[in-house]
Design a protein that fits this description.
Number of domains: 2
Structural class: alpha+beta
Helix content: 25-40%
Distance between the termini: 49 Å
Length: about 210
């Protein structure tokens, strides 16, 4: 798919496919064996916190093998020797990709997504140990009742973005989203810029009054 479709179309298809793999090939099997859905950023992509499965570029990798991210989640899970499927009964949202739906991964878009996750992990380390959550496929950390994180995009905001979400909404010019504050990744070219936005959010959360009514 590298040469077909607009960049936005390729990004959204790749994001959706990688979300499905994270949820149904890595997090779901890991939860059923180890009791945790937490994922982490790994070189070139992401992987299980406990499970030895990971995505590197446009491949699924495990200790004694690797396959291209093609076909369906069921086929990928079978190749890796794990039972396919998301974590059951933990959340209502998710990738929306069934186990037998073909996944389409553009290698260039996968590399860009891995770079965004790597930048996010570097910046978020200032607040704690970030977790990649399979529900919304976002990388985040909570500190002092404020969520800090990055997303590769979602239905409401298709392009990648960083966010700050106080558990108690605040009032003030920094807060530009219903959940808190959002800044497009296009405005955050490196980890330093991303870190500056998150630090600004921390200061605003400490400074601004809690919204009421």
């Amino acid at each position: 798919m590298n040469n077909r479709g607009s960049r936005d179309e390729r990004w959204m298809a790749t994001r959706r496919a990688l979300h499905a793999v994270a949820e149904s090939v890595i997090a779901g099997p890991q939860y059923r064996t180890a009791g945790t859905i937490r994922l982490r950023v790994t070189p070139g992509g992401f992987g299980g916190l406990v499970a030895p499965l990971r995505v590197e570029g446009a491949e699924l990798v495990w200790p004694d093998g690797r396959v291209p991210l093609a076909g369906t989640c069921r086929q990928l899970a079978d190749a890796a020797g794990v039972p396919v499927g998301p974590p059951e009964g933990l959340y209502a949202d998710g990738s929306g990709v069934g186990p037998d739906e073909p996944v389409v991964v553009d290698a260039d878009m996968a590399a860009d997504l891995a770079d965004w996750f790597a930048r996010g992990e570097q910046a978020l380390r200032w607040f704690g140990d970030p977790v990649l959550w399979p529900e919304h496929f976002d990388l985040g950390v909570a500190a002092d009742r404020v969520n800090y994180g990055i997303s590769p995009g979602d239905a409401a905001h298709p392009a990648p973005y960083a966010y700050v979400g106080p558990w108690e909404p605040r009032r003030g010019p920094f807060w530009n989203a219903p959940f808190g504050a959002l800044r497009p990744a296009a405005e955050l070219p490196d980890a330093d810029a991303l870190g500056a936005f998150l630090a600004e959010g921390r200061a605003a959360a400490e400074r601004d009054p809690v919204a009421t009514g």
